[in-house]
Amino acid sequence: MTSPALTPDQLKALVRTVPDWPARGVQFRDITTLIADGDGLAATIAYLADRVDAADAQMVAGMEARGFIFGAAVAARLGLGFLPIRKPGKLPIETLGIDYALEYGADRLEIDPGAVTDGMRIALVDDLIATGGTACASAALLRKAGAMVETAHFVIDLPDLGGADRLRRDDIAVDALMAFDGE
């Protein structure tokens, strides 16, 4: 692969911080400014693709919705298939699903069970790891389908929220291009 044109620090500078959104005290990390910058988006995809390639993945999976942006682009760059992990009711077929707890409630994720073969090495790709609830549920769902999920790759880590550590406790190596302290 060719070296990306921008450094991780330059990419981090392209992420907009929105204070007090969606609640007072939260520093929202907005990637829309990163993906709106052509060089920034290309460099981000290049970094993620290099890391997924090094993990020897056979497929890339991304969580709805921003994981679709990064995961599909990484998969295309590497010539791999992409598996969307969907919210409930979005797939027109019988699905394999998993229910999981959120901070205030519950949610569900679903996949096409025919897209995964037993023992397939799948890398998770998403824009951000915060508490890790969705990423852990995604890994559990893929493993339920027979996949080996050993790596997860993110553009942003919010280490103070502990999500990367939760994934590591599930024997998943976590990689992020940048980290932001705080929530």
TrEMBL record:
Keyword Glycosyltransferase: yes
GO MF, one example: glycosyltransferase activity
Pathway involvement of the protein, from the record: Purine metabolism; AMP biosynthesis via salvage pathway; AMP from adenine: step 1/1
Domain named Phosphoribosyltransferase: residues: 55-161
Domain of life according to the entry: Bacteria
Compartment list: Cytoplasm
Alphabetical UniProt keywords: Cytoplasm, Glycosyltransferase, Purine salvage, Transferase
EC numbers for this chain: 2.4.2.7
Main location (coarse class): cytoplasm
Catalytic activity: AMP + diphosphate = 5-phospho-alpha-D-ribose 1-diphosphate + adenine
Family classification: Belongs to the purine/pyrimidine phosphoribosyltransferase family.
Function: Catalyzes a salvage reaction resulting in the formation of AMP, that is energically less costly than de novo synthesis.
Assembly mode: Homodimer.
Protein name in UniProt: Adenine phosphoribosyltransferase
